[in-house]
Write a structure and sequence with these properties.
57% of the residues lie in helices and 9% in strands. The chain is mainly alpha-helical and 129 residues long.
């Protein structure tokens, strides 16, 4: 098992961390769009529920949320109503919903290519190529 938790048994050539990074934006937008989570801590917990391991570096989630906001895909406001510190609360924009839709198409296309490549790799690895 590699450092990222997949069964690839490799070290430097592992693509699972790259894959996870590519899924973070759409996964965050999905949770915000569904209203399942609205602030950073809830979003980090929600990623884990989707099977996306962010490890212990939650700061990259907050950086990505800032990037999504700068791109106009989400907006945020400060929630000061609770007894604890103020929290930034996120909402998806119309542009964010459009991005989510195009991400779904891209993911389907990538999954198809990945499955085809996986079949070739498995075939070669077993000597059946």
């Amino acid at each position: 098992m590699c450092a990222h938790g997949c069964s690839c048994q490799c070290t430097q050539l592992c693509s699972c961390d790259q894959f996870t990074r590519g899924m973070l934006g759409p996964a965050l937008l999905l949770m915000i769009a569904r209203g399942q989570a609205s602030h950073g801590y809830q979003l980090v917990a929600g990623l884990a529920a989707l099977g996306i391991d962010t490890g212990t570096d939650t700061s990259r989630i907050y950086r990505l949320l800032r990037t999504l906001e700068e791109a106009g895909l989400v907006t945020s406001t400060w929630d000061t109503s609770g007894s604890g510190p103020a929290r930034r609360v996120y909402q998806i924009t119309a542009e964010g919903r459009g991005f989510l839709s195009s991400s779904a198409r891209s993911m389907r296309e990538a999954a198809s290519r990945m499955l085809a490549l996986a079949g070739l790799v498995e075939s070669e690895a077993s000597g059946q190529a």
